[in-house]
Amino acid sequence: MKIPMSQLPGISPLIADYFDDYEKVADYFSANYRSIESIIAQSAKAKNRELPLAQLLPILKEQNKNYGCGKATLEKIDWLSDRQACAVVTGQQTGLFGGPLFTIYKALTAIKLAERLGRNCSNCYVPVFWLASDDHDFREVNHINFLNKSNQPSKILYESHSVETKTPVSKITLTDEISRLLEQLDAETHPSEFKQEVLDKLEEAYSSGTLFTDAFAKWLMTLLKPFGLIIIDASDKRIKQLGAPLFEKEISQHSPSSKAALQMSVKLQDTDYHNQVQVQEGFLNLFYTENARSAIQIENGKFTVKGETQQFNEQEILQVLKTNPDYFSPNVMLRPLYQDALLPTVAYIAGPGETAYYAQMKGIYEVLDLPMPVIFPRKSLTLLEGKIEKALDKYELQVRDIWGNADQLINEIAKSQLPDTLEKHTKNTTLGLKENMEVLEKIVTELDPSLTDFVKNTQGRIQNQLEGLEKKILQSFKNKNEVIQQQIYKAHNSLLPNNHLQERELNIVPYLFKHGFGFIDQLYEAVDISNFEHQIVRI
């Protein structure tokens, strides 16, 4: 079962055209993601240039071993040098317990695309997951949402670190509070055959004293180890050193990336598309992170760290970059170029929001002389459990019907199950009232025009009473049919929790409790990257 992506709630016109009429947006991207031949053709551009792989690959091996990788990952790291393999890259913020479901879907899309491209060239493509560990918006990663024992949306929140600080997540260490969160997750979900095994593995990754980002990486590796996924944490000072030449260009040329992005943003607006990122003129697309992650403004030849007293001239800030490259962190507009300055990236797996900001970036790639990867859409899924599917079938509903207003849907179902004669008589009464009152108004007006308004007001009061009666009848029927409400609310909570798409809201752990780690293999088999519609997966 599939649904066109353009019909998903909240899809912008730009992304709708990206899926339904790519030629309209082709100017904003490097190649058509629908053509495997175009992606393969991008490979030469991706790898035929100087890359710091000799220095990078030992770091990747060290990191991935620390995350608990297997032989498959280490082999794929070797492919990057031995076989000049290209990288299919994706990435995400390092959310608690793996973050929302789409994080896993991103990784699986990268794995499957690398495999598909590899059919034409054995061992020539590897999947890479880039940890967005420099991000400082802790509010976005400090929680998970799931359905509790009562099938109600519930939230687990890590509160040992303040969301008000701008500390990069890579510098946050888990405290003993993480044990309480694991206990809460256990207490609020049903017991199952697989639950203890999953909890034990989750606790191995998320333990007190572990960096928040490392915990995420270990858990992701636990889930995807057999597939040979390569994980990279580019907040590592050694990797920042490898990316320093890119940062130097951004500083010494006074943010060529901002100038290029602003030009593309104007073009998007001229074609009635939105700008996903509001680019600020006079700012670098770099943050300064010595104390907190703060923006850098350029003014009168000086580089000022916003919110702090630090100010540098160009020579001074370049010296800081040379000695402490880890004091710098790219923002959303420069991060992809940091990635592609290090890796032979042939394709990037992007969600709808990322795709929109990539549309602003083609000029940045050109001005910084880097090949822009093909922007390939991450697979979008909704998991449909058997009990939910039965409820939908009972009322002849589709998943997309649940994406609307639940109360309105319940009313429609209840109304459809009312006796036909009741609706018939209600309509007849309303129509009869209108016809009779029109006749009465004409007679009264001829008799005494001053009574016309009184007749109209009387008609309005009677009409309101009839509508009130109809609502009371409907409410009475609903009260007698609470099963309708329970089943629709349950379906709504499962398919549109907190009024957001399931993939953006729920976490994978409760599904693992129900189905075990074999659930990952089930997802892998289900993901169809040759089809670009939203996919309903029965579980």
Detailed description of the structure:
With about 550 residues, this protein is of the alpha/beta class. It has a domain at about 405-495. Helix content is about 50%, strand content about 15%. The chain has helices spanning about 15-20, 35-45, 55-65, 70-80, 100-115, 175-185, 195-205, 210-225, 235-250, 255-270, 315-325, 335-340, 350-360, 360-365, 385-395, 400, 405-415, 420-445, 450-480, 480-495, 500-505, 510-515, 520-525; strands spanning about 1-5, 85-90, 125-130, 145, 155, 230-235, 285-290, 295-300, 300-305, 310, 330, 345-350, 375, 380-385, 535-539. The strands form four sheets. A five-stranded parallel beta sheet has the order 6-3-2-12-13. A hairpin with a 5-residue loop joins strand 9 and strand 10 (about 310). The radius of gyration is 28 Å and the shape is globular. The two termini are about 15 Å apart.
Mean pLDDT across all residues, rounded? 92
Contiguous uncertain segments of 5+ residues: none
Number of strands: 15
Helix content: 40-55%
Main sheet summary: 5 strands, parallel
State Rg.
Answer: 28 Å
Distance between the ends: 13 Å
* Helix vs. strand class: alpha/beta
Principal-axis shape: globular
What fraction of the residues are assigned to beta strands by DSSP? Answer: 5-15%
What order do the strands of the largest sheet run in, or round the barrel if closed? 6-3-2-12-13
Q: Given the structure, what is the number of helices?
A: 23
Q: Key features?
A:
539 residues; five-stranded antiparallel β-sheet; 23 helices; five-stranded parallel β-sheet; alpha/beta
